[in-house]
Amino acid sequence: AMVPIKKYLLKCLHRLQKGPGYTYKELLVWYCDNTNTHGPKRIICEGPKKKAMWFVLTLLFTSLVCWQWGVFIKTYLSWEVSVSL
C-alpha cells in the first residue's frame, strides 16, 4: 500500500517541478516545449498538416546532421598515422 502512494507523490513532485513525465509522450512533449530548436517546438504547436511537415523536415535535417558526423568521423579515422620514437 505504501509503494503506490510514494510513486504517486513522486509523480506529483515531478509535475510541480515542471520536469518531463514518465511516459515517452510526456517526455517528447516536455522536450518540444523546452527546446530552442524550431522544428520540435512546431511539431506540437501547429495544425495537423503543418505538424506532419515539421516532423518530416526535422527528421530529414537530423538525418543529414548524423550523416555528416559519420562522414567526418570516417574521414578523420582514415588518416594514416606514423609514430616513431
TrEMBL record:
GO terms for molecular function: sodium channel activity. This is Sodium channel non-voltage-gated 1 beta subunit. Its main location: membrane. It comes from the Eukaryota. Keywords: Ion channel, Ion transport, Membrane, Sodium, Sodium channel, Sodium transport, Transmembrane, Transmembrane helix, Transport. It is found in: Membrane. Belongs to the amiloride-sensitive sodium channel (TC 1.A.6) family. Pfam families: ASC. The chain crosses the membrane at residues 52-70. It is a multi-pass membrane protein. One of its GO terms (cellular component) is membrane.
